[in-house]
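Suppose you are handed a protein chain with no further information: no name, no annotation, nothing but its sequence. What can you learn? This example shows the usual starting point.
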Amino acid sequence: MAPGARGGPRYLAGLVLALAASGCWRPVGPGISGEVDVAPVGGDAVQMTYLGVGGWIFQRGRDQVVAAPLFTNPSLLRTGLAGIRSDTAAVNRGMAPYDVSGAAAILVGHAHYDHLMDVPQLARRLAPSAVILGSRTVKNTLGEWSGVADRVLLVDSLAGDQDHPGSWVVLSPGMRVLPLRSHHAPHFDGYTLYKGTTDRPLAEEPRWAKEWVDGPSYAFLVDFLDPDGTVVFRIYYQDAVAAPPRGFAPDALMAERPVDVAIFVPATFDQVDWHPEAFVANLRPRWVLLGHWEDFFAPPTNPPRSLMLTDMEHFQGRLHRVFDGESWRPGSGTVFRFPSRR
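A reasonable first move is to predict its three-dimensional structure. Written in structure tokens, the prediction is:
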């Protein structure tokens, strides 16, 4: 598609600027920052740390999983009209407060640049023993240039869905992950940017946002387990809005044990029907966290504001109509502690 064609980067930039000028949405900041502790004092707890955009650290004791973060944050104009590449110094600064050297896995739901571009630095330097859970497109995009493609554990044949149980990836005696077939909602007006698959390993690092195509999208369940295999805490993680029932956990599994914390993405929720309502019904979470809600075209050092084109108040209003538990929209660096048993 030509750069000025409908759906091309110049069209996107023009649409965003026009909508910004018209005031079609009101940006909001984080609803919470610092520490949220709902676990009993001295009790066994699961800690969840928000890294911004799609990034999280999930941890119970020594068991730790990282959901792929983004710290590079190229501007909207650079993303649409110029080359982009990972800012490894920004990755190091963003991760400096956290020790993920023992992380067992890095979760990558799809291969767009804002989820995969900073993973090589994270995997090479900071989480050297972690496997990367992702699609064939994730593996091929990392290709020959990244030095970490051989650490990708392909989830395409393992994923479950509403009607199929899938296959768990056992990371340790105390932790396992279940990939779930999901979906990437359109970005705007029914159009999904950077859509496609990468079918052969890339010899060189992608230089343009359009070269980081999404591939199949996956959500994940993360279970923390007792030594006897009992599930003591269950997390649902998505890194893109999905059109239900895509992205659902297996009904049979939820009947046995629903989710403790569900992480939902608000961005582009209005491009599909029944998000988040259908996911609340499927997962039955105790708590809800919002991720990938902020403007990732701004430097991470800027005060966070909600992503352009996202009516955050409308999303949260719809959530609260069907979910009467506690929910939070965290700022980067917010740490949550949850009790590890119901």
